Amino acid sequence: MTDQSVLIAATRTPVPAELDVAASAARRAFATTVASTSAERAAWLRAAADALDAHRDELVPLADEEAHLGTARLTGELARTTAQLRLFADAVLEGSYLEATVDHPDATTTPPRPDLRRLLRPLGPVAVFGASNFPFAFSVAGGDTASALATGCPVIVKNHPAHARLGRRTAEIVAAALADAGAPDGVFTLVEGYETGVALVQHPEIRAVGFTGSLHGGRALFDLASSRPDPIPFYGELSAVNPVLITTAALDARADELATGLAGSFTQGAGQFCTNPGLVLVPAGSAFAERLADAVGQASPVPMLTDGIASAFAAGLGALAGHAGVRVVGGTTEQQPGSGSAVVLASTATAVIADPGALLVECFGPSTLVVEYADLDEALDVVRAVGGSLTASVHAEPGEDLSRIVPVLTEVAGRVLFGGWPTGVAVSWAQQHGGPYPSSTGAHTSVGMTAMRRFQRPVAFQDAPEEVLPDELKEHNPLGIPRRVDGVLVPPVSAE
């Protein structure tokens, strides 16, 4: 997805001294955060949000200087980031993220059941890699950092070089806000550099990693995390083509509307979205690719996030356009250095099924591949060949039978859309941002409140004295959080 991909040797990387200092401080901080109350952590998150909002007029121009995404987009992204921090604060206070469960003793079961009480606890210090394409929402103070801090995990952030100055300033603001709110020293630290990032994944104090970036770089780091003497979870969001299936009835009813909507989606932000619709399936003979090219028009080159991303986009376009089964319908594969302009490519389901390894690849930038299918069976064969994806979409008319389509879309994607476009990811309890590999390396979402589940592990207490139990598991439920008691969900109650 981004240009943070590099070849990583399988040998252990020497640990920079500053990383050892940060990791040791994070471990010490964990002694405080693991015992912190929900109210304390909520206050930390809100303090960080307030501080970022207060520095908006400084941060947004700085982000635009480095990322070239425009002040309107970046102002909205910063607002999303601070709203996200506050939502996690609310979720911490609500308490259901802990999955608190109480089973009282029962001598009649086989075998007899002791008193068992279970909840999720924070893993410990975690690493977060900032993404290039979202300087706020998926970076230093983005969703990975927010969800980890919410659970009580100290965070060491690897700054992204695409917006290094913004990352440093954001970290300064967040660190100061956390300190002023009473968070312990070491709860949040920024580190920089390629070698430091590699060593961070391997550092013995790190208990999990959150990553948004390229398939190549993410897979290399995933392998390092898995090959440690003590393997740790690596939650990587990596690569997706996000297939869209348009039925004949939908195309007959609103072809122009669909072309306009798709044009806006795949060119948004110069196509630098992990949810960019890179594969669109349409009925054969519909000439939808030409209609889409008309909707895009003569697109001017737009500065991309980095020269590396622009170069990779141009190379990817060249490879696709050079395939015997692909034709260029709109735009040009001759891209200007550092920029990207919209390109519409076209192919057939037959060609894609014959060579999925070459045609079903993410081309990170403002392009999409329109694939014509002869019938629904052929279209679904293409979707199956995609493998894992973050999203899959269907455009159909009311009353159409989707019983064959939905199971296939659900099989390959983490989020299935009906009548919409995948760019844009709401932050909510029900959101799922992640899908089968290669779109991500884990089953959990990286967006939304249940993103906290990545940085927790379950612990059960058996026949524990009341005084040693966490408040969340005490018999009288002093925090009033929702719990499952003897198999029955019990809603939240007023705290004492």
CATH first level of the largest domain: which class?
A: Alpha Beta
Provide the structure class. alpha/beta
Overall morphology: globular
Beginning-to-end CA distance, first to last residue: 48 Å
Bin the strand percentage. 15-25%
Q: Helical element count?
A: 15
Roughly what is the average pLDDT, rounded to an integer? 95
Task: Please state how the strands of the largest beta sheet are arranged side by side.
Answer: 11-13-14-9-8-15-16
Into which percent range does the helicity of residues fall? Answer: 25-40%
How many structural units, i.e. domains?
A: 2
CATH superfamily of the largest domain: Aldehyde Dehydrogenase, Chain A, domain 1
Using only C-alpha atoms, the radius of gyration works out to 24 Å
Note poorly predicted spans.
1-12
CATH architecture group name of the largest domain: 3-Layer(aba) Sandwich
Under CATH, the topology of the largest domain can be stated as: Aldehyde Dehydrogenase, Chain A, domain 1
Query: Total strand count, please?
Result: 19
Largest sheet: 7 strands, mixed
Task: Give a short summary of the structure.
The chain is an alpha/beta fold. The protein has helices at residues 17-33, 38-54, 56-67, 71-94, 143-151, 164-180, 194-202, 215-227, 248-267, 288-296, 307-321, 349-354, 356-359, 376-386, 405-412, and strands at residues 101-103, 116-122, 126-129, 155-158, 188-191, 209-212, 234-237, 243-246, 279-283, 302-303, 327-330, 339-340, 343-348, 367-373, 389-395, 413-418, 456-462, 483-485, 488-490.
